[in-house]
């Protein structure tokens, strides 16, 4: 049994920042479509009807990434604090057999040394 007692705060923040930034990219087309609909539905003399959708589509991955980094850092700090009080995650790990080209690698016993 292994126990995770501490995690790297900045490494968790970077991973969460990238994950949330990717989620922001997923939502970007929704804001582009909303901006397109807004530009068609708005008054004809207002030239910036669709600009808000484009700005939000560009800002969402940046905003989500920044918030993911901040929340990841806060979560890692809290985990390290609470794990110090009550322990950490208990993990049971198993070593997987080595696989080469889809064929399990079986270790071969070496031959006993010979006298010459």
Structural features, described:
This protein is mainly alpha-helical and 116 residues long. Helices cover 59% and strands 9% of the residues. A two-stranded antiparallel ribbon has the order 1-2. The protein is elongated, with a radius of gyration of 26 Å.
The low-confidence parts are: none
End-to-end distance: 48 Å
- Rg over C-alpha atoms, rounded to the nearest angstrom: 26 Å
Our count of helices gives 2
Q: Give the structural class.
A: mainly alpha
Helix content: 55-70%
Strand percentage: 5-15%
User: So what's the overall shape?
Assistant: elongated
Largest sheet report: 2 strands, antiparallel
Task: Give the averaged pLDDT, no decimals.
Answer: 82
Instruction: Return the string of H and E elements.
Output: EHHEEE
Q: Count the beta strands.
A: 4
Domain tally: 1
The spatial strand order of the largest sheet comes to 1-2
Q: Mind sketching the topology for me?
A:
Blueprint: E1 2-4, H1 9-41, H2 51-86, E2 89-91, E3 99-100, E4 103-104
Question: Gist?
Answer:
The chain has 116 residues and is mostly helical.
